[in-house]
Amino acid sequence: CSVISKDGKTLTIDDSHDTSTALATFYDTYLQGNPDLFQISRDCAIGFYTMLEYFNKFPKNAVSALKGHVVGPITLAGSIKMASGITALYSEEFFDVIIKLMSMKAYWQFTKLSQYGLPVIIFADEPYLTSFGSAFMNISRERAISALNEVYETVQSHGGLTGTHCCGNTDWGMLMESKVDIVSFDAYEFMDKYLMYWREIKTFLDRGGYLAWGIVPTSSKVTNVSTHDLVKKLEEGIQFLVNKGFSRTLIQERSIITPSCGTGTLTIAEAERVMALTYELSIAMKD
Length: 287
Description:
alpha/beta, globular, three-stranded mixed beta sheet
């Protein structure tokens, strides 16, 4: 009952006809619990398959963990329209399908990455959460947490770690209230907004959570910043938390240095600079 547009860029769900057979087929498949039935095709994830091929030839001791990611259920549901014009986010029936679909896609990625014997992290990225709490996204806090937790728990129940990245600002308290292991935020542009939730951050760290500081800009600004600039900016954020009573040691143990977002919109040279700065900053913060 899904319809892909002629340009291949939009997906709609045609619920104007009886969808009971399609739904029954989906749930029958889901209940088998076999992640291979939810395999992501090479055409849709050429980068993932290329990474696997590369890693098969790569020294396993050169990395400490492997990370995959899927689109989060809230973002996907908010991007798919029903025949009635509403998005699938507001169709409880199809929202549940999307949650379970992405849970199994995440599980499938986990099975592929876990074969190398390294810790595996699966992210469910949620750019749509920038609209959470606004008139553009009218779902409850409880429903949002429940949807995310279903994806997280699927991965965690098999020994994986989970994370979520949101490109802009959101209700970070809601996200840290979920069962996610790693919260990834744009620390270059929105650090002050995130640190406003310092009380929730403390609770999150105390329960074992990790902060992924997206401190390296993934815009044209990357050409004009230095490692020194980023160390200074990151230290200011850490010091803010220390001033609120956080243990600096705990912050350092539970922090990951990352780019602020993906590099798909950058030139190759800019993307390489993002990676180099991320590495240099990580080394500098360990000294």
